[in-house]
Amino acid sequence: MSDTEAPKVKRSSRDPEELRARMEAWLARRLPPGADPEVPAVSNPSTNGMSSETLLFDARWTEDGAKREGRFVARVEPDPSDVPVFRQYDLGLQFRLMQLVREHTTVPVPNARWLELDERELGARFFVMDRVEGRVPPDVMPYNMGSWLLDATDAEREQLEDETIDVLAKLHALDVSKVDVSFLELDVPGDTPLRRHVRDWRDYYDWTRGDRRHPTIDRAFAWLEEHWPEDEGETVVNWGDSRIGNILYDGFTPNAVLDWEMGGIGPRELDVSWLIFLHAFFEHLAHGAGLPGMPDFLRRDRVAAKYEARSGKPVRNLEFYEMYAALRHAIIMARIFARQVHFGEAEWGDDVDQPILHRELIDRMLDGSYWS
User: Fold this and answer.
1) What is the C-alpha separation between 372 and 370, in angstroms, rounded?
2) Structural domain range at position 66
3) What is the pLDDT of residue 91?
4) What is the CATH number of the domain that holds 319?
């Protein structure tokens, strides 16, 4: 694999037909007696996501003597034998966070219908939400290398950028002093939400690497300690995986905000910097492939200015948070590579930082040239 080639990862070893039959049987127990539900098939989207398993399915049933039907999405805890990307999947937290955001903000979040924590039902815990129509800027291949978004006009891309940033402003406007966010607190050492957030990711790194160390990641952690913000700012509810690949768009307007598994509480800059850096990562891949990419889209200065205008809040210490975003993405990429090795799609070589496709960007952050 070249330095700019995005990894292709097998997502699951589960049998779709077995999942379909078990989902149908589970739905029969969830719906009123006599519903006799039918689930014709389940499918797994392949363009985005490598963490929780996503199942799409339709269902038909009888309720109050009338025929009903619905289109649903199940988010399923990954099989531990499939080398999951994350060490734990708190589906209850995701389910509750989606309900909280849907109830207290105007952020478009799908209706979360059912949470199932009994692993015996599907072989893993899961929750089901209503399926929302829309189109997603793809990760594979990245949207800036060829997609409906790349083919859009400048005005259409700016509309999508503006309305995506507005999603973050609306989410962060949720007053954490007036709602219960205790379930989002991290149970790790640290005297501030940011300290606990970083500690949690360091623990995750230690879990992913085993006996292996990644020098690029180690240097980035050291840089964070040397450049820690004097004032971490206001604590807000974070989406966590705040990127356009986790939004369903109706035209160029967000129709559903998805993938809340990295959600929590912390400074607003966690979400803002992740949005900025994930596009910078895809731009790095595009340039490495000799493609023009989308250089005027989701630029740091534009995102920060637009977010400040919509939220009425300053964005501070972005260099720190961009480094932190690059660091977290590096840990995830190393774990994804370990999944590839598990499925026989890759092998570890002498260069332990081989999986970090954006290590050049981290090196530039370390010497300061990235922001010059």
Assistant:
1) 6
2) 16-130
3) 93
4) 3.90.1200.10
Q: What single-letter amino acid sits at 284?
A: H
Q: Which tens digits make up the pLDDT trace of 23-60?
A: 999 999 999 999 999 999 998 875 444 456 889 999 99
pLDDT tens-digit map of 273-319: 999 999 999 999 999 999 999 999 999 999 999 999 999 999 999 99
CB 315 within 8 Å of CB 273: no
Of the chain, the percentage scoring pLDDT greater than 70 comes to 94
Q: Are residues 191 and 234 in the same domain?
A: yes
CATH number, residue 27: 3.30.200.20
The length of the chain is 372
Cα distances (angstroms) measured from residue 197 to each of 37, 190, 230: 43, 8, 16
Instruction: Please indicate, yes or no, if residue 363 is contained in any of the structural domains.
Output: yes
Catalytic site residue from 139, 166, 241, 259: 241
Contact 283/294 with Cβ under 8 angstroms? yes
Domain identity same for 310 and 222: yes
191 carries an active-site annotation: no
